[in-house]
Structure formats: structure tokens, C-alpha cells
Amino acid sequence: MRVRALIGATFLGGALLPALALVALADEDPPLRPLDAGPPLRPPITVLRAAVTAPPAPMQSVVALGSVGGPKRELVVLVGGLGSASDDETFKAFRERLAKESGYDVVRFGQDFGSYDTLGGVDANAERLRDSVRSASTGYDGVHIVTHSMGGVVADRAFALGLSASDGVTTYVAWSAPHNGSHAAGVARAALTLSGPARPDARDIAVSADLHDPESAAVRDLARIRAVRPPTGVVRLDLRLAMDALVSSADARDPGVDSRILLPTSLGELEGHGGILNSEQALDLTMATIRSRAVPPDERGYALRAGSEVVAQIVDAHAQPLLAGVCGLVLLGGIGALFRRTLRRALPWPPLTE
Q1: pTM passes above 0.85
Q2: For residue 161, which phi and psi values (nearest 5 degrees)?
Q3: How many other C-beta atoms are found inside a 10 Å radius of the C-beta of residue 135?
Q4: To which H or E segment does residue 283 belong?
Q5: Which residues are CB-neighbours of 314 under 8 A, at least 6 positions away?
């Protein structure tokens, strides 16, 4: 059984019934210090896969179509998460929604807009995002940033490194973003430290099990990152599904930002981290924010809001031991691989087991 199936089964059983009733890491390196210039994982196991490739070649910034005659248009910049590929379907549902609207050009960071190494260091990617937005914003009447998972951390750091409303950014909506660091990344890094001489074996097992490379610069940064102040003059909204087992409430902490936890409304949303990409609630709220350049009012009743908070707490309570268990299995597997290899060298040939 794949890791994602184990996680899905655990949280479906542990959190779905309370939801229905209510509706009726540490790393060895020091933490990154927040900057004061602006605002600020659980890396997705199920939706976005880490591809072990060389960093992407630099891409030329998008041509500002809004500057070619007629009224200016608005630019929507999409930023994917850890290990995502520029040509995957992460934002397919949102792109289809935007296609029904007029007046927007849509680009994806790392595909047709700037260069993005989704396994590389957060700040290096943040600088490229900042510079790409600045180079294109002059041709538009406004820039809207929409992110998923680690993409939110990259955007946070871009603002911390100088991106601002003066660069034309009007709204920033983050989906399932670990603004305050990723507990999962921290546990993975701690497991590697404990593995000692078996570290390369444990890393190989993690990658072969469809987990993200815990030695990557992105995972290292996600384990240490901390939330910073939101950007002045930019409309901010954070959205997260209550069933998200990879970004906990503590991870998503983003002081000063309107954050909403949403209950799932379809089977696909039960896997909360990737499910938000197709959540009609999230898409509606994001489009309303972009259109009005203001955070839409929360029209849910008290019971629904309270229910989403309780379900999220239940999921969080189950997530930590489950993630620790997964990392423990990887750690044991790495130690076992090292032991088998050492024993094989010590045994006469052919091995005694044959």
C-alpha cells in the first residue's frame, strides 16, 4: 500500500464522522530569521511528485500583453509547490475558471514566467519570483498571486525580500501553505540525523517510496522557515481544507492574515492537501478576492466554522504520530539496508543463505 493510501485511510476513519456530526522536526540547522521588510510545508505526498532533475534553465519573463493597446489587463501568477512540474495539472481547475473571466492573463511561475527550481532553496526561488513580477507588472493594471503548498512560502519570502504593492501586486491567495514551517519536513530531517551512517540508505528509501527528497534544499528550508508579517497594501487570504494532514494548523499560522479552514464537500477533498486544488469553495473565494480586490465576507454559520476547526484539530492530532511512524519506518529501513550491505561484505561467497 502506498504511503498516500495509508494516510488517506487513517484520516477518513478518524475525522470524517466528527465532521458530519458537527455540520448537522526539528533540523540540526538554526531556523531562518524572519525579515522585517514584509510578510512571510507539509510537502504534498499525494499530488505533487519530486522529480530528481537538474534545476530548470532560466526562462524569459512573460510579455506584458496588457500594454498592447486598449484597456490594461490584469496578470494572475500561479506558484506551485514542492517537487511540482511546470507542465503538471496542479492549477487546471483554476485555469478553467479563469478562462471564463475576461481581462486576465494567466502565467505559471517556472513555466512561462521566470525560473523555478521546486527542489531548490526557498530564498533563491523567492528572488526570481520577485524579479519576474517586477519585470512584468508595469504592463498590467494589477498582479494577483495564487499559490499552493510551498509556493506560498516562496511568495512569502518574495515579499520579505522586497516585493510589495508598489510593484503592482494587489492580491495574494495561498492554498494549503505552511507559512510557519513544515512539521513533516522537520521530522524527516530529524530522522536523517538519527540515521547516522545509514543516512544515504534512509534517503534512498524515502525517495523510492514516493516521498520528497529530505536532503533537498527545499525540504531543509521548509523545516526552518517561520512566518513573517503580511505585505502592506496587498489583500491577503489563506485557505486550507480541514482534512489536510500535511499542513497542520500550526504550520499554516500566518498572523495578521484572514485564514479560513474549509470542510470537504466532495470525495476528492477528503485528501485535503491536494483536494483544495479542485475545491469549489476555494476557487469561488479566490475568484471573489481577485475580482473585488478585497477579502470576501465569511458567510458560513458559527456551527460550520466551529466544525471545521474541530475536524482540523482531530486531523492534526492523528497526523503527528502517523508522520513520525512513516519517518520511523524509513529510518529503520535505512539502518537495515546498511546492516545487510555490511553483512554481505563480511560473509563468504556465496552467501550462507543460499
Answers
A1: no
A2: -95, 15
A3: 16
A4: helix 280-292
A5: 14, 15, 18
- Domain range for 271 is 3-343
Flag whether 239 is in a domain: yes
Looking only at the bridges linking them, the beta strands covering 235-241 and 143-148 are unpaired
Q: Give the three cell numbers for residue 126.
A: 523567492
Parallel, antiparallel or unpaired: strands 235-241 and 258-262? parallel
Q: What is the pLDDT of residues 79-127, one digit of tens each?
A: 999 999 878 889 999 999 999 999 999 999 999 889 999 999 999 999 9
E-strand ranges in 62-177 read 74-79, 104-108, 143-148, 169-175
User: Sign of the C-alpha dihedral, residues 265, 237, 58, 112?
Assistant: positive
Residue type, 335: I
Nearest to 154 by CA among 146, 165, 144, 142: 146
Residue 41 lies in a domain: yes
Region 170-174: mean pLDDT is 98
100 is a domain residue: yes
CATH number of the CATH domain containing 242: 3.40.50.1820
Cα–Cα nearest to 156, from 243, 225, 84: 225
In the sheet with 74-79, reading across from the earlier edge strand, the strands are 104-108, 74-79, 143-148, 169-175, 235-241, 258-262
- pLDDT, tens digit, 9 for 90 and up, residues 37-51: 444 433 443 333 333
For 307-351, write each residue's pLDDT tens digit: 999 999 999 998 878 877 877 777 777 777 777 777 776 665 555
16 lies in some domain: yes
Q: How many domains does the chain have?
A: 1
